[in-house]
Amino acid sequence: SSLVLRNVSQLGSIMVYRHVSQAIDCLTSWRMSHQNVQQLVVKTGELIQTRSTHESRYDGIISKKKVPYLYLEGDGVKMGGQKKQSLEIHRFQVCEGSQKVGNRTEMIAPHFVSHLNRQQAQKEIMNYIQAHYDLTNTVVVSNSDGGSGYEKAVFDELSLG
Asked: Quick one: which H or E segment has residue 140?
């Protein structure tokens, strides 16, 4: 079921697959090997990628926001895997600023994009920005560590218009 896929994948992202297997054996009436846990994690990732059709996601948006400032950030996160394999999750976020809510600070109108493919993540955040914002009189404040794929030129391209 989709609930099992979600829960096993969520556990697999924070625990060793053998420990996930042991937890499932202890907490449910059925058994699952660590190889099955890995297969479900991979299957979940494939399902997420195939279901993410972002190109037509923003069609139909007519009015674009005009904001004085737009904050844009991007970075890659490497996750170690089995057999010295690693995955890199590419992440971009955009917001219109921050506001105080009690003792906390919250982002105004945040939007997050994550993908295993950097170009796909960049394309999706660009589509979102172009569909939602009129940047003609907007100061775009960007933040990055300048790593590969997150250079100044990338953020210049994202803030075109």
From this structure: strand 139-143
